């Protein structure tokens, strides 16, 4: 007899539409989904100026929507961005909130949808399950294939100078997700690589997570990794490659569904201090820490890495240790081929800052507890040294 399957729960947005150029039908789509006709689009200035929103805006106007665009989102958004966005949404009488952009824009959109109808002050929302009350209708439209924020129940805000804090709540799951890969064709190769590796890390860490890993998160993680491994380099080499862009966007979405239910571990825990202190993009910080953390975790996670080797390399008769090593080697080779910077010294991180980073990483207890192998401060320092 085999062991019974432990019980689990799996949550995700109720509806996802995958449609190339779907944003050009935004008015028709939203008109069918909701009765309200006043939309707040949450995005950043670069995307707005580059015309990435134009098709959606034109379609919404053509279908009788009043549209207000908040384009002051910045990477790793601070609390002030959220407050300004809520104020604009309130003044505009927003009835629907749409995140249209990368993880930063979508993260802000989720929380704005809550705060436009909630009396709870922001300070009370940090942590897990602290949001009471409801939110406005929420639509998420990613323009990077990375964070999977469109399907997660997490918003990450920068609080103070360097610290990032998370708000995790069921209300942050969107009502509707549109995956229009045409919106991602302008993402430059380096950002395609970094955000794509972030998505791969989501899949890997969800697959090896210590507490909530389950049958469904495993399915999403494996299929995410298969798609992302196949399409990352083609998407970096030719941004116009439609199949590669679609594969990446769906892969990142699946990885998001995996880690929203089976949370990430030490790669993210060690990546966050790098983002906070050196203002490096989230995906890049993950790419820098992935190799050392994979090797650190092999003592316990080798059987799972061996299974992931089958996903990205195909089946083999090799033993578990050899397969696990093959998986780690595959990921390191893929990162080399993607063109992403690979060492901390290459991105302006000084050797003298490594002890401070290791100390800071210990604050990420929410993530470290999910890692298959314990990471204490000494181990963190060793991992930063290996990444240096
Ligand atoms: N909620 C979650 O589950 C979750 C998970 C991981 C990370 N995050 C957060 O997400 C953020 C990172 O998101 P991100 O990596 O998507 O980047 P981002 O949203 O911070 O955007 C980075 C840059 O890419 C540009 N960009 C985005 N789409 C583009 C396109 N199609 N063409 C050209 N340029 C484009 C943006 O203008 C911006 O300058 C961080 O704030 C991080 O904390 C959230
Ligand atoms: Fe991430």
From TrEMBL:
Pfam families xrefs: ADH_Fe_C, Fe-ADH
Catalytic activity: a secondary alcohol + NAD(+) = a ketone + NADH + H(+); a primary alcohol + NAD(+) = an aldehyde + NADH + H(+)
Molecular function via GO: alcohol dehydrogenase (NAD+) activity; metal ion binding
Domain Alcohol dehydrogenase iron-type/glycerol dehydrogenase GldA residue range list: 23-180
Keyword Oxidoreductase: yes
Assigned keywords, A-Z: NAD, Oxidoreductase
Keyword Oxidoreductase recorded: yes
InterPro entries: ADH_Fe/GldA (IPR001670), ADH_Fe_C (IPR056798), ADH_Fe_CS (IPR018211), Alcohol_dehydrogenase_Fe (IPR039697)
Domain of life: Bacteria
Gene3D superfamilies documented for this protein: 3.40.50.1970, Dehydroquinate synthase-like - alpha domain (1.20.1090.10)
Cofactor(s) the record lists: Fe cation
Residues covered by the Fe-containing alcohol dehydrogenase-like C-terminal domain: 192-388
Similarity comment text for this entry: Belongs to the iron-containing alcohol dehydrogenase family.
Protein name according to UniProt: Alcohol dehydrogenase 2
Organism lineage: Bacteria, Pseudomonadati, Pseudomonadota, Alphaproteobacteria, Rhodobacterales
């Amino acid at each position: 007899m085999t062991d019974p399957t432990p019980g689990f729960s799996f949550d995700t947005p109720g509806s996802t539409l995958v449609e190339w150029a779907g944003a050009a039908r935004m008015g028709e789509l939203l008109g069918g989904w909701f009765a309200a006709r006043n939309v707040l689009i949450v995005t950043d200035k670069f995307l707005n100026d580059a015309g990435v929103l134009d098709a959606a805006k034109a379609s919404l106007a053509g279908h009788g929507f009043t549209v207000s665009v908040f384009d002051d989102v910045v990477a790793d958004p601070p609390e002030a961005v959220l407050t300004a966005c809520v104020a604009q949404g309130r003044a505009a009488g927003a009835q629907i909130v749409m995140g249209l952009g990368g993880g930063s824009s979508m993260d802000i959109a989720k929380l704005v949808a809550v705060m436009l109808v909630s009396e709870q002050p922001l300070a009370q929302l940090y942590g897990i399950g602290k949001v009471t009350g409801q939110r406005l209708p929420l639509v998420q439209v990613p323009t990077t294939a990375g964070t999977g924020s469109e399907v997660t129940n997490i918003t990450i805000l920068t609080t103070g100078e360097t610290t990032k804090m998370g708000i995790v709540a069921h209300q942050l799951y969107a009502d509707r997700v549109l995956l229009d890969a045409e919106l991602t064709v302008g993402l430059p190769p380096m950002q395609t690589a970094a955000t794509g590796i972030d998505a791969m890390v989501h899949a890997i860490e969800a697959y090896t997570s210590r507490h909530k890993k389950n049958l469904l998160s495993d399915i999403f993680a494996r299929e995410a990794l298969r798609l992302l491994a196949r399409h990352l380099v083609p998407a970096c080499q030719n941004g116009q490659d439609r199949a590669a862009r679609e594969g990446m966007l769906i892969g990142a979405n699946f990885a998001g569904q995996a880690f929203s239910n089976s949370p990430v571990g030490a790669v993210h825990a060690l990546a966050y201090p790098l983002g906070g202190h050196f203002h490096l993009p989230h995906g890049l910080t993950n790419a820098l820490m992935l190799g050392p953390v994979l090797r650190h975790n092999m003592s316990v996670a080798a059987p799972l890495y061996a299974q992931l080797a089958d996903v990205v390399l195909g089946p083999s008769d090799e033993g578990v240790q050899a397969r696990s090593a093959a998986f780690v080697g595959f990921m390191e080779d893929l990162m080399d081929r993607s063109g992403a910077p690979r060492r901390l010294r290459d991105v302006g991180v000084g050797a003298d800052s490594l002890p401070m980073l290791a100390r800071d990483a210990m604050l990420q207890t929410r993530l470290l507890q999910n890692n298959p192998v314990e990471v204490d401060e000494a181990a963190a320092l060793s991992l930063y040294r290996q990444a240096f």
